[in-house]
Amino acid sequence: MYIFYYCLTGVHTSLVTSAIHLGLLPEDRVPPVEKIINLPNYDRLAYNEIGQPCWMGTDNEGNKIFSIGVLSEKEVVPKAIQSLLDLYQIPQYQYRLVSTMEYVPYSTALGGVYLKRMGAGNLGRSVATKGLTRVYPKLVELVREVKDDLKNQAP
Amino acid sequence: MKIIYHCYGGSHSSVTAAGIHLGLLPTGRVPTAEMLWGLPFFDQQVAKDHGNIKFMGVDEFNNQIYVLGRHNTAKLIENVLPGVAALFGIQGKELFMVDVMPYVNWRMMLGGYISRRLGWVRIGRPIVTRGTQYSFWSLTTLVQRVKMLAANS
């Protein structure tokens, strides 16, 4: 099964969520900032590449985890993906779209997108990461829900 | 092959381009307002339809033609849809995305906003129709180019 986590940029909130899913980050405590910054592809934002599914890895059950950026179109883009896959008659159980949009902290949007656009990349990264450590427990909760759901669906 | 014409709301420019592609509109002259209003989905889609890919018809080379309203995400949608499709084994040849937004003029934007967003159809529809007629030749050129590219690939 393919699991797509999506958020504003695809390289902040959803990337950390997929890292939690894959076990790259701990579930029981908030990791230090350096550990988040050293994740592969973290904060590598290129405007003409937003939207390309970012491959994160395969989890223990063989699910393939991807992270996608949808900018502020949190309804239109997932709907378009869903309807495209319906056109090609790909069954619903082969993929899952998980929104992390509601957990994107204000500071991550500010730091990850706007400060970076203004040319303050380093400041933006630390502001964005600060925000993520604050919502970290909620992201762990989300991953737990998704994993439980997958387990119930499997048999 | 599936060809998706996409623009902001999926109800004027992309529908007209798909109509030209399918031969629903005459190619030798600018269509009248009634011909445009007779197109499926012309000036029909509202905000809750955006993001749903709508089927328009099958052309003479057996390509399926679709329209999509995708707000201001031209580059994003051209990254995300082929990217996700490729994961499921749908390669570049089977999906062709066409951005119609560069051919949209201010009359179409204004009329489309009044008719679709504000819901004042009687005021907005004549303005957007006039704008579509104004852009008709450039849309025809776009469709010719798309047909050539589709035949080559």
Please tell me about this protein's structure.
The complex is a heterodimer of chains A (155) and B (153). Chain A has one domain (2-103, 136-153). In chain A, 46% of the residues lie in helices and 14% in strands. Chain A is built from 5 helices and 4 strands, in the order E-H-H-E-E-H-E-H-H. In chain A, a hairpin with a 5-residue loop joins strand 2 (54-58) and strand 3. The radius of gyration of chain A is 15 Å and the shape is globular. Chain A starts with a strand and ends with a helix. By secondary structure, chain B is of the alpha/beta class. Chain B has helices at residues 13-22, 33-37, 74-87, 106-117, 121-134, 136-152, and strands at residues 2-7, 54-58, 64-69, 95-99. Chain B has 6 helices and 4 strands; from the N terminus they run βααββαβααα. In chain B, helix 1 (13-22) crosses helix 6 (136-152) and helix 4 packs antiparallel against helix 5 (121-134). The mean pLDDT of chain B is 92. Chain B has a 4-stranded mixed β-sheet with strand order 2-3-1-4, sandwiched between helices. The termini of chain B are close together. In chain B, a hairpin with a 5-residue loop joins strand 2 and strand 3 (64-69). In chain B, 44% of the residues are buried. The chains are: A alpha/beta (155), B alpha/beta (153). Chain A binds chain B through residues 2, 4, 47-53, 64, 66, 68-71, 73, 75-81, 83-85, 87-88, 90, 94-95, and chain B through 2, 50-53, 66, 68-73, 75-81, 83-85, 87-88, 90.
